[in-house]
């Protein structure tokens, strides 16, 4: 299991200035649903490269 600082966070929320980013699309969709940031994201059009370690 990767450590917190080792996770490559490729999926960024970006809704209304939200800066949260996640390593999996599933985790991003959980955030989007919980916070009410619109419709669930799909693989097309949601891949944002945040950073490399």
Automatic annotation (TrEMBL):
<feature type="domain" description="C2H2-type">
    <location>
        <begin position="13"/>
        <end position="37"/>
    </location>
</feature>
<dbReference type="GO" id="GO:0006355">
    <property type="term" value="P:regulation of DNA-templated transcription"/>
</dbReference>
<dbReference type="InterPro" id="IPR013087">
    <property type="entry name" value="Znf_C2H2_type"/>
</dbReference>
<dbReference type="InterPro" id="IPR039327">
    <property type="entry name" value="CON7-like"/>
</dbReference>
<protein>
    <recommendedName>
        <fullName>C2H2-type domain-containing protein</fullName>
    </recommendedName>
</protein>
């Amino acid at each position: 299991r990767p450590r917190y600082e080792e996770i490559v966070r490729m999926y960024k929320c970006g809704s209304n200035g939200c800066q949260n980013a996640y390593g999996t699309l599933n985790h991003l969709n959980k955030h989007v649903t919980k916070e009410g940031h619109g419709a669930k994201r799909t693989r097309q059009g949601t891949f944002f490269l945040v950073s490399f370690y």
